[in-house]
Design goal:
Layout (H helix, E strand, L loop, with lengths): L11 E3 L2 E5 L13 H4 L3 E3 L27 H34 L6 H27 L17 H28 L3 H25 L10
Helix pairs in contact: 2-3, 2-4, 3-5, 4-5
Bound molecules: fe (ii) ion (2 copies).
Length: 221
C-alpha cells in the first residue's frame, strides 16, 4: 500500500487522535494486498510520543490490535500478597512454638484434655506453615524464617488466652488473604487458605471451650 506520503508509512490522523497501522500482525513475507490492504488495523497513540508502536514497549499491541495495559499494578499487588503471606508464615511459626511448649508445660488434671489437643494443633500449624511457604515460593518470594514473638506464662489460663488471641488474629488475617487472592485471580491459592481457615477456627473453638467462654465472632473482625 502506498500512502499519500509514498512508501514511508506514516500514521494517519483520524478524529484528532494519531493512529498507526499495526503492521506487526501481518504474516512475514506477505504482500501488502488483499485484506491487509483493505482493512488496516489501527492503534491509538498518545499525543507527544513516537508514532511507531515498536519504539515504546509499553504500547505493544497484541494480535487484536488492542494496546496491552501495563501490569505494574498487578505486580505491586503480588508483592503485597507475598509480604502479607510472610506475615502469616511468621504467625504459623509462632503458633508451632507456642503449641509445642504449652502442650508440654500445662499441668493439672483439668488441663490434660486440652494439652493433648494443643499437641495436635502443633502438627496442624506445621502443615499450615508448609502450605503458606509453598504459596510464597510460587509467587516468586522468599519464605520468612523468623517467628512472631511467643508469650510465656506460668499460668495455664494465660497460655490458653495467648493462644486464643493469636488464633483470632490469624483468622482475621487469613480472611483478608482469601479476598486478596481472589482479587488477583489466584483462586487455587484462595482455596488453600480457606482450608487453613477451617483448622484455625477449630483451634479457636477448642481454646474458647477450654477457657469456658464463647468463641469470638470472626465476622466482626
Ligand atoms: Fe495455622
Ligand atoms: Fe491455629
Amino acid at each position: 500500500m502506498t500512502s499519500r506520503h509514498g512508501n514511508n508509512r506514516r500514521p494517519a490522523v483520524i478524529g484528532g487522535a494519531r493512529t498507526a497501522e499495526c503492521v506487526q500482525n501481518r504474516p512475514h513475507g506477505s504482500k501488502r494486498s488483499g485484506r491487509f490492504r483493505s482493512r488496516p488495523r489501527l492503534v491509538k497513540i498518545p499525543k507527544n510520543s513516537s508514532p511507531w508502536p515498536w519504539h515504546n514497549p509499553v504500547r505493544r499491541v497484541d494480535n487484536t490490535g488492542v494496546a496491552k495495559p501495563s501490569n505494574d499494578t498487578k505486580s505491586n499487588s503480588r508483592a503485597e500478597l507475598i509480604a502479607a503471606l510472610n506475615q502469616d508464615l511468621e504467625r504459623e511459626y509462632q503458633a508451632i512454638i507456642s503449641y509445642v511448649t504449652y502442650s508440654q508445660v500445662l499441668k493439672g488434671a483439668s488441663y490434660m484434655n486440652i494439652a493433648a489437643e494443643l499437641e495436635k494443633h502443633a502438627h496442624e500449624e506445621l502443615a499450615h506453615a508448609l502450605i503458606v511457604a509453598k504459596q510464597i515460593d510460587y509467587l516468586g518470594g522468599m519464605p520468612a524464617v523468623v517467628p512472631k514473638p511467643v508469650k510465656t506464662s506460668e499460668k495455664a489460663e494465660d497460655m490458653l488466652r495467648f493462644d486464643l488471641d493469636n488464633e483470632t488474629t490469624t483468622i482475621r488475617n487469613y480472611r483478608e488473604r482469601v479476598k486478596q487472592c481472589d482479587a488477583l485471580g489466584e483462586y487455587a491459592m484462595a482455596e488453600q487458605i480457606r482450608t487453613i481457615l477451617v483448622d484455625e477456627q477449630d483451634h479457636q473453638i477448642a481454646l474458647a471451650t477450654a477457657l469456658g467462654i464463647d468463641p469470638p465472632d470472626n465476622s466482626k473482625s
